[in-house]
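Notes from hallway chat w/ T.B., transcribed later so I don't forget. T.B. wanted the structure written out for a chain they're using in a teaching module, and asked if we could keep both sequence and structure tokens in one place. Agreed to drop them here.
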Amino acid sequence: MNEEINDRVQLAVEQLHVAIEFLLSGRSAVSALTLAGAAEEILGKVVQKWGGKTALNIQHEALTRALEGIGRVAPTEG
């Protein structure tokens, strides 16, 4: 893993730690959600760079299957 990616992953991990601390301490659920979302975006970009699926990709696939199961068409991803 190159240094730039490593730095981004470390930043995302720190954001998740702070988000968990905020949530568990009851200090700020909104800040926890914001930090967790930012971390997910950073980690998602790293995963995409490695050719993997992000959490959003996986959720979209699950939604598509569920909607197709009831005869509906899912919105396109993106």
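Follow-up for T.B.: Helices lie at 3-25, 29-49, 55-69. Might be a good example for the class.
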